Amino acid sequence: MALFNKVLARIGIGAAKVDTKLYKDQLTAGSKIEGVVEVYGGNIEQEIDSIYLQLFTSYVREVDDKKVKQDVMLNNFKITNPFVITPGETKQLPFSFELPKDTPITMGKTRVWVATGLDIKNAVDPQDVDYVNVLPNKMVSAVIPAMEQLGFRLRQVECEEAPRRMRKRLPFVQEFEFVPTRGPYFGKLDEVEVIVQPDGQDQYELLIEVDRRARGLGGFLAEALEMDETLVKTTVHERDTAHVKSILDQLISKYS
To answer: What Pfam families is this protein classified in (predicted)?
Structure first.
């Protein structure tokens, strides 16, 4: 019977199981994510080489002119040394790590999750997935209402593959796409895309792409050649969030 149980455990039947419980599933990037990993022994004694936590999100990239979704690991954590779990035993292993500051917020189609896995020799590695709700940081919380006050509506939030010149640690950026629905930019602009990236302690880099509406033959030619788009960049400190509306207005009006 013991040999039979070992064979079953190797294919995941009657083997150890894992369940991660997050103390909080609503967090801001840069804050601590804490919880406990519970490991439940199966029908036989098994040696666990390691327990790992991997933080994931996904982004859109183009492959052969088609948009595909690509998962990407934001961080990887090993939380224990090798140990043995006996049949029916339960082990609780607390953990704590920082949610990276460049973790995208979970708006639109963006999802962020923690994948937990047990590394077991000669057996199927059990896994568990827990989703995290990443709330807007101080800068994003200031940018969205500021754009709305300027007459824009947030149309889409999406993580997209970034050109190499715009990449930092990650291969993508999170874009906030706004369209004018009223105010001074209505009828002048097609859309404005804003990218908010952490840039050192308590400051952020704002990349703003202004897409001007085509006017006349010259305008349509410019739009066809994507010459109607202007990308501008500025750095804003957290203490200046109260002035974000004015900063955005000046930059957008200059290039609209």
So the answer is: Spo0M
Q: How far, in Å, CA of 96 to CA of 22, rounded?
A: 10
Question: Which tokens belong to 183?
Answer: 């105010």
How far apart CA 80 and CA 234 sit, in angstroms, is 42
* HSE-up of residue 133 (Cα within 13 Å, Cβ side): 5
Average pLDDT, the chain: 83
Check pLDDT > 80 for residue 221: no
pLDDT in tens, 8-41: 333 333 468 889 999 999 999 999 999 999 998 8
How many Å is the Cα radius of gyration of the chain? 24
At residue 148, the 3 state secondary structure works out as: helix
Which residue pairs from 163-169 have beta carbons closer than 8 angstroms and sit at least 24 positions apart in sequence?
A: 166/195, 166/207, 168/102, 168/197, 169/100, 169/102
Q: Where does residue 140 rank: exposed (0-12), middle (13-18), buried (19+ CB within 10 A)?
A: buried
Q: What is the pTM of this model?
A: 0.82
List the domains of the chain with CATH numbers.
Answer: 2-135 (2.60.40.640), 138-255 (no CATH)
From residue 143, alpha-carbon distances to 96, 99, 148, 177, 185 in Å are 30, 21, 9, 12, 17
Number of H helices, E strands in the chain: 4, 14
